[in-house]
Amino acid sequence: MAKERWFILFYCCIIAFSVDFFYDEPSALVARLTGTSVYCVNGTDTSCLELDMVQYNAFFSGISWASGVAALVAGLCIDHYGPVTPLWFSIALIFAGALLFAGGSYASSTTVAFGLMLAGRVIHGIGGGTVVTVCHQMKAAWFHYDELALSFGLHILCARLGSAAAYAIIGTAVTTLGLSGSLWIGFGVTLLACIAIVGLINRDHRIHDSGIPSSMSGAGHSFRRLNGLFWCLVIVAFLLYGVVSTFTANGVALITDIYGRSESVSSLIVDLIYDICLITPFLAIFMDKFGHRDWWITASSLFLIIGLGLFLAPRCPPWVIPVFFGLSYAIFPTTLYSSLPLVVPQRSLGIANGVLTFVQYASTGILTLGAGAILDMLPSDDNRRWLRFTIFLAGIAVLAILLAFIINCLNAKTGRRLTPSQKVRRQAVDIEEVTPINIDFVTEPHGSVVRETTEIRKSETSMPASWRSFPSRQEVRVTSDF
């Protein structure tokens, strides 16, 4: 069973690659979807559409909202019924959504095509949000503290590779295949996710052994177990994901308009964000080894501000934002998701992952629509609209930095759960000697209360009690709000 977790992670990585490939597919086709490409103007590509920027950004906001709501519902379902039913549900939806998105481009008018393709994005988003939440919960259940960030880092790396592949493959193929032909590439990649989900379902009996409960307490009880530090992580996730996702959705158009690069070259420049994310597993190893996840969150926020600040400077090269955004994007998703098992009780991990995934997608849905409205305020040939766009993202990044400092303060006041390194964790919890005892309450520093403790591990170390209080498979904990 020790090697089983790596097979689970392998399937989850394939799913992540496929879901993110489909998500970012329109970004590489923005010129064809809006009818501004030279191939659309000269009539070479007869499948071009004429969407405005609000409609184009609706492709991202629609799938993001659908994925977010689905993730929230999936989190509750996992806590109550286990993962298998949501997995079957997601197969049908991502297949149907990808098929409708690709086939909708053949409609006779832009209006009809937009409606069909948007419906396909929403349907795919429901399935994608569901399966991603299941994968996050399974990784949290299978991987221990020493490998927690690494498992999330590998998962997120494959997701970024999916996004990078979408820019590279679609951006190159569109010259030959045109808009409609290129969309079928995304459908083919979606089939890989369907096969991977079937692989997870075929391990049904092992999935139940992974620690994902088949029944849990009520949803309200699960929500009450989510403390103040968790909700701060959720808010900072909203801000960080929103900034990066909004830029990647509009980055190709920005570079094409500001720097006069072709759509293929612009796609490759924006693709740097995902190329840099290749370092994510190495950063995850350092994160697991040295701890201090609160500092990693602060660093990722600073990278966003640096990138946007340099972009506003005169004669800034087009790769500046992608490089700094890539560094940030390589850090914060792994940090946030691997922090959940450290601050949330085991029985609430399903709903916690659902909430965080919901916020991740909801931020994209809200901010991409806002960005589309800002860009449509001025004519498409007026580059001042991109200045407003950049200032909009910079304001959100500033809020993320302020919230990151609040997380540092809360972490210090609530037992430094995000701080310990592997060495400290191993000293604090001796996994070789376990003495079962039953107690009603254990009061820890700063007012946090441990309830329903079924096992306490013996340790000869003098480490602070709060560093021995991470939620684990042997302990179910309720912590105070702050």
Give the averaged pLDDT, no decimals.
78
Structural category is: mainly alpha
**Which CATH architecture of the largest domain?**
Up-down Bundle
Largest sheet: 2 strands, antiparallel
What's the total count of β strands? 4
| Major beta sheet, strand line-up | 1-4
Helix content: over 70%
Categorize the overall geometry.
Answer: globular
Summarize the structure in words.
The chain has 482 residues and is mainly α. The protein has 2 domains: 4-413, MFS general substrate transporter like domains (Growth Hormone, Chain: A, Up-down Bundle); 422-468, no CATH class. It has 18 helices and 4 strands. It has helices at 4-24, 30-34, 38-41, 53-81, 84-104, 110-142, 148-201, 204-208, 219-224, 228-259, 263-270, 272-276, 280-290, 293-311, 320-343, 349-375, 384-413, 422-428, and strands spanning 434-435, 441-443, 449-451, 456-457. It has a two-stranded antiparallel sheet with strand order 1-4. A hairpin with a 5-residue loop joins strand 2 and strand 3. It is globular, with a radius of gyration of 23 Å.
Blueprint (SSEs and pairs):
Blueprint (H helix, E strand, L loop, with lengths): L3 H21 L5 H5 L3 H4 L11 H29 L2 H21 L5 H33 L5 H54 L2 H5 L10 H6 L3 H32 L3 H8 L1 H5 L3 H11 L2 H19 L8 H24 L5 H27 L8 H30 L8 H7 L5 E2 L5 E3 L5 E3 L4 E2 L25
Antiparallel strand pairs: 1-4, 2-3
Helix pairs in contact: 1-6, 1-7, 4-6, 4-16, 5-6, 5-7, 6-7, 6-16, 7-11, 7-13, 7-15, 10-11, 10-15, 10-16, 10-17, 13-15, 14-15, 14-17
